[in-house]
Design a protein that fits this description.
Layout lengths: L2 H9 L6 H27 L18 H26 L2 H31 L12 H37 L3 H34 L5 H27 L2 H27 L11 H27 L5 H14 L7 H5 L24 H11 L8 H12 L4
Helix pairs in contact: 2-3, 2-5, 3-4, 3-6, 4-5, 4-6, 6-7, 6-9, 7-8, 8-9, 12-13
C-alpha cells in the first residue's frame, strides 16, 4: 500500500475545515496529556496493586484506582466521539462532548483532595518527595478548563458550518430538518449510553465485594449484549424498521428496570462496609446517569419511530450514494471543463446553462459549446480544437 492510497483513506476520516481539524487536534492533545498524567498518579500512589486482588477478596479495593482508570477510558471515548461527530457533522454530539468535557473538569477538581486523603492515610506528607507533585494535580484541571473554552468557541463555529452543509444535503424543508435533528439526537445518545453502562459495570464488578460470582458473570456478559442492542437501535432508525425499533425499546425498558433495581440495592446497602458503603456515591451517580440516558434514548426512539416515512431515509440514502460514486467518476479533460459532473457546468450556444458532463451527453455538449465558441472554463480556440479531438475519441 503506497502513500497515494493511504492519504485519501486518512482524509476520509479527518474534518475538512480549519475549525474541525483544530477541534480534533485539541481533543488529541487534551486526551494525551491527561492520560499520561493520570497514569503517573496511579503509578506514584501504587494503585495498580489494588486492582490485582482476587475478585472474591473481602478487602476493599481502592476506589480511586478504578475511578482514574474510568477517567482514562472516558478520554479515549471522547476522542472517538469527537472524530465521529466531525465526520458525520453531528452538532448535537459536539454539544454533548462539551458537557462530557465539563464533567471531566468537575472530576479533575474533586480528585485533588481524594488523592491527598490517600497520601495522608499512607503517612505521606504533602510536602514530602513521595507525594504527588502539586503541579501534576493542577495541570490536569487547567488543561481541561482551557480545552473547554476552546471547545465552546469551536463548537459555535462548527454549528454554523454544519448548518450550511446540512442545508445543502437535506434542503430547506423545515419538517425534514426537524426529523434529522431527532435522528442526530438519537445517534448521539446511543454512543453515550454505552460509555455510561461500561463505567457502571466496571465499578460494580471491581468495587463491590458483596456482588455474587453469578452477578459478576452476568454483568460481564451484558456488555456485548448491550452493544448488540444499541447496534440494533441504530439499524432500526437508519433503515426505518418498525418491528426492530419495537424490540429495541423493549430492551431499553428492561435496562431501565435493571437500573432502578440496582439503585434500590445500592441505597439499601450504603451503610454496609462489605457492600456499597465505599462506592455508593459514585455508583448512585452512574446508575442515575444510566437510567436517565436509557429513558432519553427511549423517548427519542419513539419520536424517531413517529418520523418514519417522512423522507429522511430517502434523503440520507441519496446523499450516501452520491458520496460513494463521486470519487470513482471518470476525470477526463472534458469532465474538468464541465466540472466533472459536480463543479462546473457547460454553457450552451444561447448562453444558458447546459447539463453537467456525463458519458452519454459529452459529445453533444462539447459540440454545442464549440460551435458557439462559449466555454465554461474560457478556453481559447487552440485548446478547443485539441479538446474536441480528445472528446471525439471518447465513447458516446
Amino acid at each position: 500500500m503506497n502513500t497515494h492510497t493511504v492519504k485519501p483513506a486518512l482524509n476520509k476520516f479527518l474534518p475538512e475545515s480549519v475549525y474541525g481539524r483544530t477541534f480534533l487536534l485539541i481533543t488529541v492533545l487534551e486526551s494525551g496529556v491527561d492520560i499520561i498524567l493520570e497514569a503517573i498518579v496511579i503509578a506514584r500512589l501504587n494503585l495498580i496493586h489494588s486492582l490485582t486482588l482476587p475478585l472474591g477478596a473481602t478487602a476493599t479495593r481502592a476506589p480511586l484506582a478504578v475511578y482514574l482508570a474510568i477517567f482514562i477510558l472516558a478520554h479515549l471515548f471522547q476522542l472517538y466521539f469527537a472524530l465521529d461527530a466531525l465526520r458525520h457533522k453531528n452538532t448535537i454530539q459536539l454539544i454533548g462532548l462539551c458537557c462530557f468535557n465539563f464533567a471531566f473538569l468537575v472530576y479533575a477538581v474533586i480528585q485533588v483532595p481524594e488523592i491527598r486523603e490517600i497520601e495522608a492515610a499512607k503517612g505521606i506528607a504533602t510536602n514530602s518527595t513521595d507525594s504527588t507533585p502539586a503541579i501534576i494535580l493542577l495541570i490536569i484541571p487547567a488543561c481541561i478548563g482551557l480545552s473547554q473554552l476552546a471547545f465552546g468557541y469551536l463548537t459555535w463555529h462548527l454549528f454554523k458550518e454544519f448548518g450550511w452543509q446540512i442545508y445543502k444535503q437535506i434542503g430547506a424543508d423545515r419538517k425534514i430538518k426537524r426529523v434529522y435533528l431527532w435522528y442526530q439526537i438519537f445517534m448521539c445518545l446511543l454512543k453515550f449510553d454505552y460509555f455510561f453502562f461500561i463505567a457502571f459495570s466496571v465499578q460494580l464488578v471491581l468495587l463491590v465485594p458483596s456482588v455474587s460470582p453469578l452477578e459478576r458473570v452476568l454483568t460481564v456478559i451484558a456488555l456485548p449484549i448491550t452493544l448488540l442492542l444499541l447496534v440494533l437501535g441504530y439499524y432500526a432508525v437508519r433503515n426505518e424498521r418498525s418491528p426492530v425499533i419495537f424490540s429495541f425499546m423493549v430492551g431499553l425498558l428492561s435496562g431501565s428496570s435493571y437500573f432502578v433495581y440496582k439503585l434500590f440495592r445500592i441505597w439499601q446497602g450504603r451503610m454496609d462496609p462489605n457492600s456499597y458503603q465505599n462506592v455508593f456515591k459514585s455508583l448512585t451517580v452512574f446508575s442515575v446517569s444510566c437510567l436517565l440516558m436509557t429513558l432519553l434514548s427511549f423517548t427519542s426512539a419513539i419520536i424517531c419511530w413517529r418520523n418514519f416515512g417522512k423522507g429522511l431515509k430517502a434523503q440520507i440514502d441519496k446523499n450516501s450514494s452520491s458520496r460513494k460514486h463521486l470519487p470513482r467518476r471518470r476525470r477526463d479533460p472534458a469532465g474538468q471543463v464541465y466540472g466533472g459532473g459536480m463543479q462546473g457546468m457547460g454553457v450552451s450556444e444561447h448562453g444558458g446553462s447546459g447539463r453537467r458532463g456525463s458519458g452519454t451527453s459529452m459529445n453533444t455538449m462539447t459540440k454545442k459549446g464549440m460551435e458557439g465558441g462559449l466555454w465554461a472554463g474560457g478556453a481559447g480556440a487552440a485548446e478547443a480544437g485539441d479538446l474536441q479531438d480528445e472528446c471525439r475519441r471518447l465513447p458516446a
